[in-house]
Amino acid sequence: MNERVDRYLGEPKPALVKSPRRTLKFLKGAYAAGVPGMMSKPSTDLLVNSGGYAFHYGCPNPEMRTIASWLMTSGEAKPRRIAKLVPALWKRHGQEDLVLVGLILANMSEEDLGESPWMALIHLLGEREPLGALLEIGEEIVRGGHETPDDQWLVAMAEQSALWHQVAVLFLSLRKGSTGNLRGMVTTAPGGGELFERIRNRLLSHED
Q1: 107-136 pLDDT tens trace
Q2: How many angstroms separate the CA atoms of 135 and 53, rounded?
Q3: DSSP state at residue 56
Q4: Which of 17, 116, 169, 171 satisfies CB 3.0 to 4.6 Å to 75 for a cystine?
């Protein structure tokens, strides 16, 4: 346990989640508290409109899980308040914000979210997004016990836009086994960076 995070979070504060603005500000402080060693200035050299992040403190995964646990414990009596934080976190678009979104989507019920975590995620997407972050969120959702979308869902998603097509391929890559009937969807996906092409090649190398 990071002692600074532990001190910062203190006891659960249910009243805090009543105010999205206060909660977002509080969470940013929690990210900073989670950075190992001396307090680091967040990196802001990757812009949101280029598909990157608004900021990146470097808060490690264990500390992010602690922050997510605190948040969900604080709002357990009103889970819809936590669900309503998700769009605000995504809009702010810090690296830690996106990690926190993945943890929330993975650990809340569909009833509390109002839809499946996969649907909730794609409804957040802008015109450009960091595919690596989306893959990590998808992996977290699977770890949370949610099955990947079925073939029909992925095909319909891929038809919506170039980004959604790429993300459909990322979601497919979270399954075990071959691409099945979706080889064509993988082949025709728009070109991406090194990570995306590595995933595409891995999927296509599987024997049907």
Answers
A1: 999 999 999 999 999 999 998 899 999 999
A2: 15
A3: B
A4: 17
